[in-house]
Amino acid sequence: MQRLIVNASNCHVGGGKTLLMGFLKGVSNDIETLIYVDNRLVINFPISNSVKFIRISRLKRFQVGFMIRKKIKANDKILYFGNLPPFIKFNCPHVILQLSSRFYVDSISMKGFKWRDIGIIYLEKLYYKLFIKNVSQVIVQTSSMYNKLIESGFQKKISIWAVDDLGDNMFNEEKNKKDKNSFIYVASLNPYKNHKRLLNAWNKLKNDGISPKLYLTLDDNVVMKKWIKNFVLINKLNVVFLENITREELLSIYSKVEVLIFPSLFESYGLPLIEAKKFKMKIIASDLDYCWDFIEPDEFFNPYDVDSITRSLKRFLKKNKKLDIIYSPNEFFNKILDI
Question: What is the 3-state secondary structure of the chain?
């Protein structure tokens, strides 16, 4: 009998958890599935009887490979769910890596990152390069990631298989009404998520007499959170903070928000883009490769340019830009006299 062994021991929060939840909802009753998970992982929906969970503490994650090696049978398939390949070469023809981190196959400026986070990223990137040879296949979610993986020199099988944990009819237009000109940005507070330019654009709108509501998720990045809250307070921006909310609470907010704005500079998947479409939201996003893999934004902008973000918002809100005035020579002269 075929069996699937899954190492998902580092997927208990964030996007990794969301992808794992989608995977678990699709597990077949006909396939014995053994899954190593973080002991903090919470699952609040029915799981197939074919699934057996083995809960692992954070300190024992590196032991999972040895545990799997002891259990391998001839027809087993092994799935490493969560970016990092096994450091052990398994005696198994099907060792699959689910890769959802772009850091390992692409480059981005580390400006704004904590030294600790920079160190972790480079160590994980080195680990990935050393042990990617131990897999027979890689699963990515988008064409952009496929192209980056090819450019990195990976020559084995690559599959583009995206998964989410939402149904197809999440939004009922009869029961839910969107708040007009309301926006949301769902993201961690990592530097590449581009919060500073987004809020500077919101401030430019306010200075032009435009104050749409923006819902903004906040995590435990203390420095960035403090900057955001101070900037919003000082400039009196129409921003609602979403802190420590559950996924269910987030989905409820999706039901009433009209627009997802997504200024991120660097993504492997951009899961909120997919979620926004499920909830029939409009999308204003960075004009970068990842934004065009699954969707066509309703508006797009250069995410490195605050003015470009501002203009795209004004186009969406159908506000006329206050153009600079060109004076005739006589008018210019009279302006000087009026000073």
Answer: CCEEEEEECCCCCHHHHHHHHHHHCCCCCCCEEEEEEECCCCCCCCCCCCEEEEEECHHHHHHHHHHHHHHCCCCCEEEEECCCCCCCCCCCCCEEEECCCHHHCCCCCCCCCCHHHHHHHHHHHHHHHHHHHHCCEEEECCHHHHHHHHHCCCCCEEEECCCCCCCCCCCCCCCCCCEEEEEEECCCCCHHHCHHHHHHHHHHHHHCCCCCEEEEEECCCHHHHHHHHHHHHHHCCCEEEEECCCHHHHHHHHCCEEEEEECCCCCCCCHHHHHHHHCCCEEEEECCHHHHCCCCCCEEECCCCHHHHHHHHHHHHCCCCCCCCCCCHHHHHHHHHCC
